[in-house]
Design a protein that fits this description.
about 280 residues, 9 strands, alpha/beta, seven-stranded mixed beta sheet, 2 domains, about 15% strand, single chain, two-stranded antiparallel sheet, binds S-adenosylmethionine, Rossmann fold
């Protein structure tokens, strides 16, 4: 039976999501309804006392079932926010995380403090394109390249670039292989979860692509070859690498960076929770 008002529909959906163990059930219920009905927050608010439009109820029901089976909300609504912009996401790409925004800020800060007028920047393992596209839009004079080994991710990244009006080159390929020449900045948020921990991840995370998560037996399966080959892709003077890491492997990553860049300035930086989350290498 159709609930008499949008308010009562919100309550009903909230109850179903709560039963499935979803913590932010009330917020998610509103978001699922908005997305299924094509409403903005204001439209939903002004319709609270009205009868829900029946033509969208079937879509809503299928979205609720997907969420009850612990599919991430962002895959169902098809969108997520990163660096204050909306990016399309689906099951081919990692849902960009808030901590990765800091990687974007670090790269921008480096370019500005070093006064690099028209920087050449590469993003390795671009996924939805969140990092590369944000950099392109924040620094319009930059020449940005992005790579990903997943052809499906490259399709989404290119769609996001087009929708957001960003100009950059996005190529399918392994790590640095598609890149020509030398770069001022290379950024990456590579897969870094230990293979043995994949099964114990939160149900929603397990729905994200394995290629985006699996860092091999020691979590360094992608970072290791990336660091081993990165030096000859960097400009000789004043260039830098910014890589997001898993805090428990900070010492191992630090050692690898030191052996590749014995004269580089290498630092570990913390995320907003105080965990070592980024390694920066200044190759000066
Ligand atoms: C953790 S996700 C990061 C996605 C995006 N940069 C972000 O921060 O939201 C890692 C990405 O690296 C890609 N990837 C994994 N192995 C790769 C490789 N050998 N070469 C290039 N990309 C790779 C995956 O397909 C995935 O899109």
């Amino acid at each position: 039976m159709t609930p008499p008002t949008v308010s009562s529909l919100i309550r009903l959906v909230t109850e179903r999501l709560t039963k499935s163990g979803i913590e932010e059930a009330s917020t998610e219920s509103r978001l699922l309804i908005r997305s299924a009905f094509g409403w903005s927050a204001i439209e939903q608010f002004t319709n609270l006392d009205d009868t829900p439009p029946t033509k969208h109820l079937e879509v809503l029901e299928s979205h609720i079932r997907r969420r009850e089976s612990r599919e991430p909300l962002q895959y169902i609504t098809g969108t997520t926010e990163f660096y204050s912009r909306q990016f399309s996401v689906n099951e081919s790409v990692l849902i960009p995380r808030p901590e990765t925004e800091q990687l974007v800020s670090l790269a921008i800060e480096f370019v500005r403090t070093q006064n690099i007028g028209d920087p050449k920047i590469a993003d390795i393992g671009t996924g939805s394109g969140a990092i590369a596209i944000s950099l392109a839009l924040e620094m319009p004079s930059a020449k940005i390249y992005a790579t990903d080994i997943s052809g499906d991710a490259v399709i989404i990244a290119r769609q996001n670039a087009e929708n957001l009006g960003a100009e950059l080159d996005i190529c399918k390929g392994n790590l640095l292989d598609p890149l020509d020449g030398q770069y001022d900045v290379i950024v990456s948020n590579p897969p870094y979860i230990l293979s043995g921990q994949l099964n114990s991840l939160q149900a929603e995370v397990r729905k994200e692509p394995i290629l985006a998560l699996d860092g091999g037996n020691d979590g360094l399966g992608v970072i290791r070859p990336l660091l081993a080959n990165i030096k000859n892709k960097l400009k000789e003077n004043t260039s830098a690498v910014f890589i997001e890491i898993d805090p428990p492997v900070e010492h191992k990553v630090m050692q690898m960076a030191q052996s590749q860049f014995p004269h580089g300035k290498i630092s570990l930086l913390s995320d907003l929770s105080g965990l070592s989350r980024y390694i920066t290498i200044e190759h000066i």
